[in-house]
Design goal:
Layout (H helix, E strand, L loop, with lengths): L4 E2 L2 E2 L9 E6 L5 E4 L4 E8 L2 E5 L2 E5 L4 E4 L5 E4 L5 E7 L2 H4 L4 H6 L5 E3 L5 H18 L6 H24 L7 H21 L6 H8 L3 H12 L3 H17 L6 H7 L5 H12 L3 H8 L6
Antiparallel strand pairs: 1-2, 3-10, 4-9, 5-8, 5-10, 6-7, 6-9, 8-11
Length: about 290
Amino acid sequence: MIETLHGAMETVSYNEHFGIRIYLNQEAENYPIHWHTAAEVIMPLENTYTAVIDSTEYKLNSGDILIIPSGQLHQLYAPESGKRLIMQFDCSILFNLNGLDSTFHLLRPCLVITAEQNKELHGSLKPLLLNLMNEYFSQYLFKEAAAYSILVHFFVVLGRNFMGKERHFYHVKQQNQHKYIDRLLQVCNFINEHCTENIQVEELAEIAGFSKYHFMRLFKQFMGMSYYSYINQHRIMHAEKLLIDPNLSIMEIAMNSGFESLPTFNRVFKNYKKCTPTEYKGLYGNHSQH
């Protein structure tokens, strides 16, 4: 359940200083569009569960795993009966570890892992989630440390699978693959943190340690999109959260999201969200009253 909701932002309450919150949700309750600084992992244990993220509906069957990065707007719909494991956690647990911070952002807008699509990966991750839940609800000594270690292990397994199979460079020697990935992850992390600022490609190339044109080619190969599209994607994600605030004008939101003009903001937003910022505000702004 959502304990604290200010507009569309949920404040996740952790027990004492334990930066992980797990609960077995059995409520036949739907949750309106919201976001939180915590990351979220959902796995139905009985019956189905439905999430809507970026206007896409994800119907989860029992055992399916859904990972929602921090700051991602989402809605949840429950069946009349059922049970699901819902975990929210402080992302700094992972972000302090080299490589996991930027890797996590590459999972946007979300990631679904099913046994049908990837039996090996699902077979590794599902027991880790169940073990983490058991530690969380136990009275064992050092249960907090044990829970953290399982959480890190979960994302190490996920990250190695995701990065190893999905991200590689053509015409780059095998021994240089990891070095290139590390450099471009640093760039992604920089964009994630500074997307509302005026970012120049030369600055990104310098962070990566490549020439401008070599960087542009490698980034597109790595991400499947240009660096400029990646920046705009994060600006639109930032704008989505601002659009739910009834006190902000469209112009204010455009400027606060890193766009130089209102026409550019309108064009890019419609390209990504298939509606104008004004239409989006009308569709989702009413949820701010919940």
